[in-house]
Amino acid sequence: MSLYGKYLQNLIEEFSRLPGIGSKSAARLAFHIINMEDDKAKKLANAILEAKISTQYCGLCFAITDSNPCSLCANPKRLKNTIMVVEDSRDMAAYEKTKEYKGLYHILNGVISPMLGIGPDQLKFKELLTRLDDSVEEVIVATNPTIEGEATAMYLKKLIGSIVKVTRIAHGIPVGGDLEYVDEVTLARALEGRREL
Ligand code: ZN
Predict the structure, then answer these.
(1) Environment class of residue 86 by beta-carbon count within 10 Å: exposed (0-12), middle (13-18) or buried (19+)?
(2) Distance from Cα 93 to the centre of ligand 1, integer Å
(3) What global pTM score does this model have?
(4) Which of the residues 93, 127, 129, 197 has the least number of beta carbons within 10 Å of its own beta carbon?
(5) Tens of pLDDT along 74-119?
(6) Cα separations (Å) of 187 from 91, 101, 129, 150, 170?
(7) What separation in Å is there between the alpha carbon of 15 and the centre of ligand 1?
């Protein structure tokens, strides 16, 4: 049974499935869209579809991108001797904003989390191994300083420590902090103060 007719109800339900959107916010967004001009609503719908269809993962670093390889992997100016391992594309973007890091990235697309049932096989570790040729001198582990982030760092050390130098970013970052929200100066300092694992 629906109060507003099935189409609007359907839209409210779709919104309420999004992260951080409760039922009240979902209803507010849906009503906002219903009251939009047609062409604006179409623009929004198209933006969702286009982003979904044309966005993919870079075949090298697994960043979210619309070109493969991504513009960063394809950039000849980036130093090939360092790979920074991050949890997701947003963390990569945070480091890019510091303008301090000139190397390449590898995006795991998550962290090891027994609680959530996420093991190493679901993350991009195998793909990282294939990138570790003679040109790579250092892998910087920049996972978040959470229990899962630290466990992932230790796993990486075990996995690749005998192949390449593995370093961990310093803890200028608050424990439990999210890289995405840390200011650029702190991030740059954490990178500078990295230590060998
Ligand atoms: Zn890439």
Answers:
(1) buried
(2) 12
(3) 0.76
(4) 129
(5) 999 999 999 999 999 999 999 999 898 999 999 999 999 988 899 9
(6) 10, 10, 26, 17, 9
(7) 31
* φ and ψ at residue 41, rounded to 5 degrees: -65, -40
Distances (CA, A) of 99 to 61, 96, 168: 19, 5, 19
Task: Identify which of 185, 139, 130 has the alpha carbon closest to the alpha carbon of residue 161.
Answer: 139
H or E element that contains 64 = strand 64-65
**Residue 69 alpha carbon to ligand 1 centre in Å:** 5
To 5 degrees, how large is the angle CA 95–CA 187–CA 62?
30
Cβ atoms of 81 and 136 within 8 Å: the answer is: yes
Helix, strand or coil, per DSSP, at residue 72: coil
